Model the fold of this input.
Amino acid sequence: MTSGQRKLRAGVVGLGMMGRNHARVYDELADEVDLIAVADPDAAAVRRSTAGRAARGYADAATMFAEEELDLVSVASPTSLHLPVVLDALAAGVNVLVEKPIAGERGEAERMIAAARDAGKLLTVGHIERFNPAVRELHRRLQAGELGRLFQVKATRLGPFPARIRDVGVVVDLAPHDLDIMRYVIGSDPIRLYAETERRIHTDHEDLFNGIMKFANGVVGVLDINWLTPTKRRTLTVTGERGMYVVDYINQDLIYYANSEAVHTWENRGSLDAPPVTSVAEGEMARRAVRRQEPLAVELSEFARAVREGGPSPVDPHDALVALLLSKKMVEAGETGAVIGGAELAEALA
Done:
């Protein structure tokens, strides 16, 4: 924030675990943002989030938007409530960050995107893994061609059954993180997908998911996600002709495993005449330097900066829509046993 600029006025809707974290981080961004108001139908949650803060509390978001002049708001309410809250915020002239998944259905997401465009306000989506410093460093290195041709990307997101209210299964709740990151780091869209899902503990929705995708650039994507593992594991592995990178989301580690037999060199990367890698052998393991930061703090700081500068959105809502649609197709594939691709997948992602 430059001298003479006022601080942005922020609000939070939905005071579950994620919403409480948004409120905390806005407080920590006090040099650029003032947390003005929070809203949740749970009076106890409102009391907890306003205790010791100047922020005012409301029982519903519509009243908050009517009575407060906000510049930006985080919407962390249940997915089924995203549409009305986001539309109310945009109608009130407020820039919006809505937690993922952007919506429960395609039509809802498209209405949000259109409303933001018509209002001339920013709409961004809380795909928080994009703001993990280890992921950002991986993206930078892949963009520089460090692994040469990419072969496979694998996401592992395992953990115990969450003690929170859910209106979606594990695919729509968690897979958008990894579907978005896969597209982000390899720069390609899937052309074919298949999945297996199971309901082991959660009787309304799936709680175990294994998926596989073929991307247009030839990369194979593998997803292993569940709510059934008694420890948390969050990793992303990218394998290419020069070696392999492993991201540990939780510890923000980025580890490189070299293919010692790679015949490409850094100097001839990208050369059409460079000979292909013809064998693979174990090589050095190196931990890349990563400046650790809380991803949510990075995300909200970039959201605030985008609001102040007039855009662009830190995460394009269309990317979030694609992640949602891919999740829906994964659920469909798991329920039907069908391989989904070709014109059907292309139409769904258009």
Notes: The first strand starts at residue 8 and ends at 13.
